[in-house]
Amino acid sequence: MRNYELMCIIQPDLDETAMNGVLDKVKGWITESGGSVDKAEVWGRRRMAYSINKHREGQYVLLNVTMNPAAASGLERNLRYQEMIMRHMLSAVG
């Protein structure tokens, strides 16, 4: 098992229930692969340095995750095809 940080930028026009639905889906993918979500920080809506899909703002979420390195590629594939997540970055910690 390895520790990761997952930063996601989610579309800004989602309401709170839709945002929680996206987060629950991401957490479900992590737990299905045998990992665990240690901490989830919602940073809220912030202005981005450049526009993505004609959006100047995004809702930022930081997840501290523990999972197998083999499951990381599957998680990134799922994140890439999730339309509500505009950008993501998964990086190993330590």
Describe the protein's architecture and organization.
By secondary structure, the chain is an alpha+beta fold. It has one domain (2-92): Alpha-Beta Plaits (2-Layer Sandwich). It is built from two helices and four strands. It has helices at 16-32, 69-80; strands spanning 2-10, 36-52, 55-67, 85-92. The protein has a four-stranded antiparallel beta sheet, covered by helices on one side. A hairpin with a 2-residue loop joins strand 2 and strand 3. The longest helix has 17 residues, at 16-32. It is globular and about 35 Å long. The two termini are 12 Å apart.
CATH topology: Alpha-Beta Plaits
Structural class: alpha+beta
Please identify the top-level CATH class: Alpha Beta
Helix content: 25-40%
Going across the biggest sheet, name each strand in turn: 2-3-1-4
Mean pLDDT across the residues is: 94
Number of strands: 4
List low-confidence stretches: none
Number of helices: 2
What would you report as the Rg, rounded to the nearest angstrom?
13 Å
- The structural domain count equals 1
Shape summary: globular
Strand content: over 45%
Name the CATH homologous superfamily. Ribosomal protein S6/Translation elongation factor EF1B
Would you list the SSEs in sequence order as H and E? EHEEHE
Sheet with the most strands, sense and barrel status: 4 strands, antiparallel
In brief:
The protein is of the alpha+beta class. It is built from two helices and four strands. It has one domain: Ribosomal protein S6/Translation elongation factor EF1B (Alpha-Beta Plaits, 2-Layer Sandwich).
